[in-house]
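User: These chains co-purify. Model them together.
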Amino acid sequence: MAQLIWNGLFVGSFYALVALGYSMVYGIIKLLNFAHGDLYMLGAFSGFAMLGALGGFVPSTSLLSLFVVLVMTMLATGLGGVALERVAYRPLRGAPRLSLLITAVGASFALEYGVRIVAGPNPRVYPVRLDGTAVEVLGAKITVQQLVLMVIAAGLMVALNALVTRSRQGRAMRAIALDPKACLLMGVNVDAVISRTFFIGSALAGAAGVMSGAYYGKIDFLMGFIIGLKAFTAAVIGGIGNMKGTMLGGLVLGLLESFGTDWLGGQWRDVFAFGFLILFLTVRPTGLLGERVTERV
Amino acid sequence: MESRRLGWAGLMTALLAPFVIATPYAMNVMTSAVIFVMLAVGLNIVVGYCGLLDLGFAAFLAVGAYTGGVLATELKVPLLATVPVVIVVTVVAGVVIGGPTLRLRSDYLAIVTLGFGEIIRIVASNLDMTGGPSGIYGIPGLFGDTLSDPVVFYYTAVLIVSVAVLFAARLGRSRIGRAWRFVREDEDAAEASGIHTYRVKLAAYVAGAVWGGLAGVLFAGQLSAISPASFTFLQSALVLMAVVLGGMGSTPGVVVGAVVISLLPELLRGLADYRYFVFGVLLIVVMLLRPQGLWPHRSREPGYTAARSTPGAPGAPAKEEE
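Assistant: Joint model of the two components:
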């Protein structure tokens, strides 16, 4: 029981980290960034490449070098996200939502198969593997590495929350989410703020990618698809566009999956998650912490 | 009518093609293209006419193929005999998934349909009835085992698909088709002018499901073996690509788009590794440069309706903007 809860929270914190980027972008420009999961994949691969390059200099890759790689990857995927927004999404601002979504699907394909061309179709094994001895806490086996990863995830989320609620930048983001046109009139550089939002969201996804690569040890070019779906599910459960709700949704989804796997078996895990999403949307379309959206005609 | 002449020209090309080249490989490719046209026309009802982005369309292909396949192998009946059951099952599937989700707005719907596609695929690879990951094999042909000549199959497929295309096009010009386009252009305005948007959207979704299911039966008949690997997101995305490339809502465009999408990989065999990358980039480029697709739908409706209705009659359908 305690083990199930712990596993759920651990996986859930990954989901939450990826879901935040989804939620931020959705909150600010109402775009489902379909390629978000692939930025996570991109993060895992660029982390892989950097660790490989580092391995030439440092013989034993430690937790510290992993941390350096994490930061560098966040920068790289963040820039990737900004580039994506610039090329694929910005020219279509103001176009029908459908064409934007289709562009996002195209971007997702281009990223997946672009990485496939560069890195090859076979799964890669991460050079570092975080897999340590377990400590028993309340009947659950917890490894130090799991704890470290969760602390990093939690730290990133706390930092993001502070950024959004406290800083000038965060205020601009929230203002654009409310009314982009009015922001433009009030002298907010809307394009720049949207770019930065993409940067932050993609950087978080990249961080999650490196962390999961280091933890699970195996990466492949299609790994972003399913986690993108899961992250979206998490964001919807918590209330898309709402930071705290999204984090909560990630944890809830992780717990649900952990228990679902225990009851039904691993092969039904995804069915369980998506089935729950459909069920949940019919009952509460705005999520746990989302407020009701009034449609203006 | 220009489009009618075009339709005949397309049908003649399809009918004459086996006289030009009839190697088993070519017949196989052409049959696949015809089935793909069926799929694209079905998705066009959902995405093109009604503006509901469905990212899990392969689910209905799977539902149709599995229903037909299981019935045909269990009861030893020809595939064509399973068609009524397939239609019923796909309608049920369409209502079950569309019922709760069509109240949602476009992007939620997109993800939910994507999740639905995954659910169907995972369920198919985990159930005993569907043969698990290895799928079902030894499915008898459309008319039973006796007639399994690829040329006969091809002509049957062409016949069925042309009827389906014609029917879809006529559906698009009918009263409900106009309602679909109105919902696509402005859902709130449609609701305000008395269209029951939910029911109209559900109708589009179910119609798309039936087209997809019938394509599934043809698919099962062509390959005589099906497995969950045929119904991935990739398949859904390719069908969507055909619809977008051709021009959403335009029947000739979508047919051309489907033929291009299904033949292109065969023509570009050398580029195999770059294929899907090119697809992705192409989707973006088409959306950026030609958001309406290569062969967009041109509305001739205001003139068309004006010719039929008495001038100045009240209650004439709202003018459609393209």
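The radius of gyration of chain A is 19 Å.
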